[in-house]
Amino acid sequence: MRPLLVTAAMLLAWVASTHAQLLHDVIHAEIELNPPRVTVAGKVATTRIVSEELSAEFTGIALQGFTASDSLSGSVRFYENNAWGPWHPLYIVRSGTDEAFLAAYRGEAVRSALSIEFQFRIDSAYEVQILSAGTFDQRLDGQDIPTQQPQRTGKSNDFRITAPQLRRRAEWGAQPFRGTPIALNRPSYNYMTLHHTAGFSAKTLAQGLDQVRRIQDFHQNGRGWSDIGYQFLMDQEGRLYQGRPFLNEAVPFDRGPPLAHGAHAGGANTGNIGISLMGCYHPPEGSNCQDQMTDSAVDSLIVTFGFMSERYGVSPRNMRGHRDFGSTACPGDNNYPRIPDFIQRIEGLLVTGNSLLGRAAMDARVDNEGIVTVTWAFLADFGIVEFIVRRRVGDDGAVRITGGSGAVDGKTIDTPGVGRHIYELWARSERGFEQRIAFADVDVEAATGDFLTQSFPNPTSGQATIRYFLARESGIVSAEIFDVTGKRVLTAEEQYREAGQWYVTFFDTSALPSGVYFYRISVDGFGGTVFEASQPLIVIR
Predict the structure, then answer these.
(1) Is the CB of residue 464 less than 8 Å from the CB of residue 509?
(2) For the sheet containing 166-167, what is the strand order?
(3) pLDDT digits (tens, 9 = 90+) for 486-538
(4) Interacting residues of 430 by C-beta distance below 8 A, sequence separation 6+
(5) Local structure of 470: helix, strand or coil
(6) Lowest CB count within 10 Å: 14, 159, 376, 458, which one?
């Protein structure tokens, strides 16, 4: 348990963030909060927080916070007509997996209060952190009903992207839509927008179904909307959940049913398809907001946005983050910078399609000399005419390592530099579609000192490969071969190299007669020769 200590650091935690997350999906204006006043009576701690002066009219308020206490309750009152009014209970929805909660109050009256005071009661062994707070005006929620435009139709084989599996509303126990949904396309679908829920994380199917119900509960009963604000949501393993109902639930999802107007990007909801990741992906908000997208979630997101792009005619270039439409950090600093890469991958998927070409397993292992052995085995073949093995380092482009015709199991040796490397097995169809069907990653560590490896292959009749590591100093590296008398017979390299990295040099021995030789590298730094080493090499004919 965490003791409730009112310190300067804790007071700072109560100041409303200027980068509000999930709350920006439901408010029209953010409000600033003063530091709290905390009193403790026995086992109950009561905390009151007063807002700064308000300027705009509103019909309700909402806030987002974190607490580990199971006994959280809250209320709110308004300073109107030179006096504080009565306390009103807050409608609170707790996350099912983390400490996040949402709270709201709404009424029929249009208020012009000068200030708001919140009151929370919890077990005194815990603390409450308020992430952000704001007001909303339900008069601004109304939408004009447009003339619905014809939907794009076609046979399933007209499309290259197979629909992702969707958990429909009946599966997560959705409450009915309140009213009548209206069309999202007016006259067309314009954007695909990425959000995160800033809490309410979900890693399993059971957690995902539960969290979507909780989010709908707050949107309907706290915010007063007709339904959950997003068209779709996704958990941290990439499972996709239906948010708002389709205008025609009888149309199969893979056919692109007409979508309903949502409430996820204030002022920019028209024609805007919203997908929210369940979790908190914005590290500046603190320890509760450190989530990173898993590889499976990224792959699922690419397929989902590719499917939306193809079925609803939205260009991948019109993919956005929520912050592109308003003052919010959503979808978080761990997601937003990745959108250009997502767009590029979606564009590639629209060309290649995602119908399964095969299944495979892949493995990558590194030895103490920084040499990586990559193996792969095909488990199923649904039309593979060629395979390609590529290496990807961070955000850099992929490098082709090897490849061949058909679905052929194999092994290859690679000599990358220091760092994390991702090896990918790609399959290509007869129509030229490429699809990644397996991958493996490996970390190549730096050597503990200057190091020269044994060449391979050894003996050799053609090309010989050597590896060396410079640990201490940078310098001009010379790589040479000598015969047994000490006569230099071949020079392969003479160039400047930086320290802290593995390097590869190739010797072409095809012109050398059979015999025993020695290869040597020497590194000349600012103070003379800083490293020198040699190894034997056998040439056979």
Answers:
(1) yes
(2) 166-167, 240-242, 232-234, 272-277, 191-196, 319-321
(3) 899 998 888 898 888 888 899 999 999 999 999 999 998 877 788 888 999 99
(4) 383, 385
(5) strand
(6) 458
